[in-house]
Amino acid sequence: MSDNNNFDPSHLETLDRDLGRLSTLEQATGYASRPLMGMGIALIFVVFAALVAALIFGQADNSFIVVIAAAFGAYMALNIGANDVANNMGPAVGANAMSMAAAIVVAAIFESAGALLAGGDVVSTIAKGIIAPESMGSSSSFIAAMMAALLASALWVNLATWIGAPVSTTHSVVGGVMGAGIAAAGFAAVSWGKMGAIAASWVISPLLGGLIAAGFLWFIKANIIYRDDKIAAARRWVPVLVGIMAGAFSSYLAVKGLKKIVSIELGTALLIGLGMAVAAWIVMIPVIRHQSRNLENRNKSLKVLFGIPLIVSAALLSFAHGANDVANAVGPLAAIVQASATGDFTQAVSIPLWVMVIGALGISFGLFLFGPKLIRMVGNQITKLNPMRAFCVALSAAITVIVASWLGLPVSSTHIAVGGVFGVGFFREWDTARRMRKAKQQLDGPPEVGPEERRRRKLVRRSHFMTIAAAWVITVPAAAVLSGGIFLVIQGIIG
Questions:
Q1: I need a surface site. Which of 236, 249, 303, 448 has the fewest CB within 10 A?
Q2: Which of 316, 320, 334 lies closest to 69, judged by CA?
Q3: CB atoms near residue 293 (< 10 Å)
Q4: How many whole angstroms separate alpha carbon 73 and alpha carbon 76?
Q5: DSSP conformation class of 120
Q6: Which residues pair with 349 in a beta bridge?
């Protein structure tokens, strides 16, 4: 009885503190377990891909090599999903047109559909014609080179994702193939003319993407945003812009995304695009008129009109990306499968269905498990996006690929999309400064803007710009050096 009467309230405080520590510990454990869970699921998928290869090849010669290669291909596909797909979905998420969850679901569906329905069924024996196949000498040397290229490019993309830099997985594979080829057959085996064109694309892709995106943003600002009656201007020009988008994506998909289904020349693709552009323009006139009813005459209202076109463009970009870039993961794997089964490594390579499925599933898993980091980087952290600006980025990606195909230039979809984001950001900086100078001249006498204020008004984060640019420049040489080293190790193991 006396014990109860002498109850000390400080005991409750101590208990609360202990419970608080437990709660904090639970939260910390939860945060710590998420990356581990993601890595665990990724590891399960890699093992699954290896088991599938083991079941299909059974006791055949070189079956162990194919099993290891399948694991490397699955690892590469995961990294493509974690890094590359963010470029398609980042602008839409950053503009708040889609939630992160919706973006991941839409991208996973359309990336897989593009890979399985329209993924190229034939790839060059050596990626992009970088190395002459005959220079490899033997099938074992070729297999070692392809395995080194797969693992090196996957490791490089993984590192880039970890530091938050969107890089070109195509360039990573090219660097991996080049490095292994040099280690196997010397510098003379490399097609340096082809490598020069790829190096030029480091500059051409982002500049062209940025200029086109900035051009469309200038058009939207001049003809819609800065007009007195914004809604009337939107009713006139948004259907035109959606028509251009429909035409660009129709041509883009015809040229780059439907090669497996039907081969279409660029001229025919442009005619298809023109027809789709006119049809979309006609259809969108009453749609935009209906959407714009009762909207207030301000910029915020305009975002509603660009939301759906932006979502559609992001989905189509994902479809085309899956159709094209799945070969980065499964092309070298398919070449290893063919060389292991037949001993032939100089002919074009057909990609088996099970290999394509590994690529498609890997991209989707990689996006789901690790993609949000790069989606936030591209969508939120480089510059502030809204539906109009993100629409310009997506439209730029499609048009730039068409222009590059017409000019015969190799380009990177990653560089184009990120270049488009930088383009709209730098254009906004220039446009804001221009309008402030004009206002100053009219008012005649506001105080000069100091260095600190100028820095605060920068609309593109310079640190991200420098990090991404540096990652782009060193992607091919870094992947090449890594691949050359891995090739020598593999050669030493398999003899």
A1: 448
A2: 334
A3: 7
A4: 5
A5: -
A6: 123
CA–CA dist 391, 417 (Å, integer): 11
Question: Above 70 in pLDDT, residue 155?
Answer: yes
On whether the CB atoms of residues 230 and 298 are closer than 8 A, the answer is yes
Residue 165 in this model has a pLDDT that exceeds 90 = no
Distance CA 365, CA 41 (A): 9
pLDDT digit string (tens) for 431-468?
A: 888 888 887 777 665 555 555 545 555 678 888 888 88
Query: Could you tell me if 424 and 389 are in contact, meaning their C-beta atoms sit under 8 angstroms apart?
Result: yes
User: C-alpha distances in angstroms, 95 versus 198, 224, 379?
Assistant: 31, 18, 7
pLDDT in the model for residue 7? 47
Closest CA to 462 of 374, 378, 382: 382
The secondary structure of residue 349, as a DSSP letter, is E
Q: How much is the pLDDT for 410?
A: 64
Tell me how far the alpha carbon of residue 85 is from its chain's centroid: 4
80 near 366, Cβ under 8 Å? Answer: yes
Q: Give the closest residue to 386 by CA, choosing from 292, 294, 299, 297.
A: 299
Give the count of alpha carbons within 13 A of 315, CB side only: 15
Structure pTM? Answer: 0.82
Whose tokens are 């992009």? That residue is 128
Decide: 272 and 254 in contact? Cβ < 8 Å. yes
Distances (CA, A) of 367 to 104, 129, 173, 434: 7, 29, 19, 40
Judged by phi (left if over 0) then psi (alpha if -120 to 50, else beta), residue 322 lies in alpha
Does residue 33 have a pLDDT over 50?
no
- Note whether 168 and 475 are within 8 A (CB): yes
Contacts by 485-492 with C-beta closer than 8 Å and gap 24+? 485/183, 486/147, 486/148, 486/151, 486/152, 486/180, 487/144, 487/145, 487/148, 487/179, 487/180, 487/183, 487/184, 488/183, 490/144, 490/147, 490/148, 491/141, 491/144, 491/184
